[in-house]
Every structure is written in C-alpha cells, then in structure tokens.
Amino acid sequence: MPWVVRKALKYASLSLNISQTTSIPNLSENPAHDLGSDNTPVTTLHVRQTVSPGNFDSEGSYSVNGEAKEYSLPIFGTISMQLRYMNAMEISDEVLQQKLSEGSPSKTVIDELAQNSTKGWNARVIWGFEVIDGRRYLTRNVVTSKNEKSVKARMVYEFHG
Known about the structure:
Elements: H1 3-10, E1 13-23, E2 42-52, E3 58-64, E4 69-73, E5 77-87, H2 94-103, E6 108-116, E7 121-132, E8 135-146, E9 149-157
Antiparallel strand pairs: 1-2, 2-3, 4-5, 5-6, 6-7, 7-8, 8-9
C-alpha cells in the first residue's frame, strides 16, 4: 500500500454495514436435490465498507465455508480470502482466546485468511466479540505478514442496530 494512502487512512473513519444470510448449498439450484448429501448450511456475510474521507469504499459477499475465493478490493488489489468458523479455544494467543471466549457465549469466532500473492503478503484475521468496559463490541484482530515481518492490529466496532 503506498505511503500516502497509509497516511490518509490513519486519519480516516471506517464504518462497516454487515448483514448475513444462511443457505443450504445446491438446494436453490436444484430443489429436488438429495438432502442426504452435504446439506450443511453456509453463512454468507454481506459487507459494505465506507472510508471517510477517501474513496476507498468497497462492498462484497463472503461465504464462511472454508473455501478460498478471489476478490478485488480497491486498496488491496486482488486477494484470495478464506473464511471459516472456529472455536475460540483453537486460538493460539491465550489472551485473545480468553477475551473472545468471554465475549461470545457460543465460543465461536470467524477465522479469515487473506493473501495477495502478487504483493507477497498475507493476513490472518479473527472476528469475534469482546466485552470492553462492560460493553460488547465486534473486534477484528489482524496479524499481517510479509517476508519475515509481521504487524498486529485490533479494530473495535461499535454496534448500531
């Protein structure tokens, strides 16, 4: 990401509008499909991201099914993303594991792996809920790596329903 863009984003505000749908694969394509095969419901997150100021807005739908899929995003270019549900107890960082376990009664988080093979970076993102100062927030804990270097970030989102 260019230096000027990084500096501009430092002072920008970010809002996400997230909704979700759940469907059974192949059922909509073939209603007579034998439900004895894979009828595991798939959650799809619909995300609209607005960055102000900027013109870095994006919109996309992401299936939480563990399958990698390519997306083109304004800031990051073409990336491969893979999202899956994960038990918070699988998180290797014990402090993060504790925070997300306490914030989510189901102990379920979303594990996202994003990779840009052209630029040579990858990001592991854990989406979950945390209780901060007595209030529950959606958080995204990110570890971005390139070559031998990595950077950690934590984004905290207020809920407006």
